[in-house]
Amino acid sequence: MSYQHQYIDGTRIHYPMGKVVCIGRNYAEHAKELNNAVPTEPLLFIKPGSCVVPLSDGFQLLADRGEVHYEAEIAVLIGKPLSRNPNAEEVLDAISGFAPALDLTLRDLQSELKAKGYPWELAKSFDGACVLAPFVPGDAVADLADIGIRLEINGEVRQDGNSRDMINPILPMIQHISAHFSLQPGDVILTGTPAGVGPLHAGDELVLELPGLSRFNSRAL
Predict the structure, then answer these.
(1) pTM
(2) Cβ contacts of residue 85 below 8 Å, gap of 6+?
(3) 8 or 69, which is more confident?
(4) What are the Fumarylacetoacetase-like C-terminal domain coordinates in residue numbering (predicted)?
């Protein structure tokens, strides 16, 4: 199925879409809660655009592959091409919008893959693995080092983080990504998740927000 959304900043996103570049273990407390080492440099992986689904009124969970964990993240939408080694001004100019997102993980499968030294794609890049809310315009954010990300499930706050706590801040993170591969309009960057991740279940009611910028209700199906 193909989806189309008109976002507040006028950017039109089509699903399937561009690649989703993710950074793992970008909050020290999250790394610790999963007994992972805190990386000394950005830990990058990519989800294909085909795994993106809209947050909308609900999103589907896989029912037969073990626990599905939520990871609430700040998503950054790229609106202009970025090639190798952009300066700070070029990166800021290329940011089109910000949104809350869920990076869904098949945690049991990921643990098995990690134990064998295998890549994570089967646990991170399945259809529906990136749940994306509408974006607010890039210029709605006054300070990249002060963006909140918050997730409530069934009325209980599960994650409550801020970009100020990132190991790799947003701007230098995008510069680092662009040093390895180019970014194109429509690409999305997921900037890491704060502590508090856990399993999702069908029927869970969610509130996902960038406090002061956007707030959305949804449910796991």
Answers:
(1) 0.89
(2) 175, 178, 179
(3) 69
(4) 19-217
